[in-house]
Task: structure prediction
Amino acid sequence: MEIPEQDAAHMARAVELAGRGHGSTTPNPVVGCVVLDAAGQVAGEGHHAYAGGPHAEVVALAQAGERARGGTAYVTLEPCDHTGRTGPCSRALLEAGVARVVIAVPDPNPEAAGGAARLRAHGVSVTEGVLAEAAERVNEEWLTFMRLGRSHVTWKFAATLDGRSAAEDGTSQWITSPEARADVHRMRAASDAIVAGIGTVLADDPRLTARPGGERPARQPVRVVVDPDARTPATARVLDDEAPTLIAVADDVQTDLKADLLRLPRHDAGLDLRALLAELAARRLVSAFLEGGPALAGSFVKEGLVDRVVAYVAPALLGSGKPALGAAGVGTIGELHRFTFDDISAIGPDVRLIARPVRRPAPQETPLAGPQPAREQ
Result:
């Protein structure tokens, strides 16, 4: 459909506002809202800032006050029609006397959906699908979480121009610059979980914590170690008290490891990664930041479980050493995993590439049976 220029402009602003909630709204979505008065002038703006706090519509309506009556509200996600920790946004819009509501994306959560229908039933004009692609992109972690019943996965790696993530002797500190590493910490801090394999834990003994600007944020992501045979040393830094940690082990392994264990079925040479992501979602971990070695990354790519790739490429060459990606189920060029670039940015002397799969999720990737993650209000 052809979108009126005014609708596109105001929804673009709502999408921008929604992005401000990244990293603080889990397990809720990021949402932005712009309210116009009856004359078409901006009267209020808002975004959902934290779980349990006021929703974007409520913030924008409070700012608009009486000017909202007869006006238009632009919302990146269908207003909720559910009472939780806060009231339904659909009713807040009705009480404010808004005459028209423009929605980008319908709410996939059956518990919260229905706001558009309620608004229409009470005589409010509702337009849907405006800038849906942009609104989906800004809220992609939560939408994956809700639609597929699993955590959204970002795979991050750092490599040289020839694709090496470590030298022949295993050393890798540091391939990229301090600026790139600081950027990684900002991305870690905005994630709900940091995932690494046992190989990385044994080789590097990483902390797997977020330290943006060198400071410890108020909320640390959950550290997840994929360790089928429970080989994590009791002295490993991932078991310290800096952040909560889950050790994912095979359901048939015997261990006396003193840690929070997540038992999963074996799959190929490792664990069932779909089951892992479903378990993380059940714990309301919306987004997972995958780090660690090439073998684990290859398994995620092979299973079609990488939703976004963030690559930091340094202007350097090694010629030999560890590749960034291991076996990923590609036997011939026709099986290539193709991605499209969304962003290419200079980060210090390095380049950051952000890409997403061209293909859609595999047909077998559907929400698992049983309880699904709920949207908190």
Remarks:
- The CA atoms of residues 38 and 71 lie 4 Å apart.
- The longest strand covers residues 339-347.
- DSSP finds ten helices and 18 strands in the chain.
